[in-house]
Design brief:
Number of strands: 8
Helix content: 10-25%
Strand order of the largest sheet: 1-2-3-4-5
Structural class: alpha+beta
Largest sheet: 5 strands, antiparallel
Low-confidence stretches: none
Order of helices and strands: HHEEEEEEEE
Distance between the termini: 66 Å
Number of helices: 2
Mean pLDDT: 87
Shape: globular
Length: about 110
Amino acid sequence: MNLSSIYHIFKKVYVKSDMNEDLYIAAKQISQHLVYAREIEIYNELIYKDEKNDKISICLDDNRIVKTPGFEIFAFNVDDLDFKIKNNFLYMIIERDHHHFQFLIGSDLP
């Protein structure tokens, strides 16, 4: 076997990783936090009241998606974060390295 044939074998086996898996995990974690959310508001951040009636904020802080109070970090190296409500569904839009990702994270309360 020569080097060229070995290269072709590895070329077929190599699977490129998306390298943005953490954003999908963050969207899932945030959607789980929103299961019992009430009074959802969107400004430059997502603000909602949880089941204990505490006001919670999910926002971009120093290129990280965080939840306050406390300081739970969902994702790092995020360039921009936005939320929108469309047809009673809540979406999170993330920009990283000039790529945009949109995630359905919940539904708006009627």
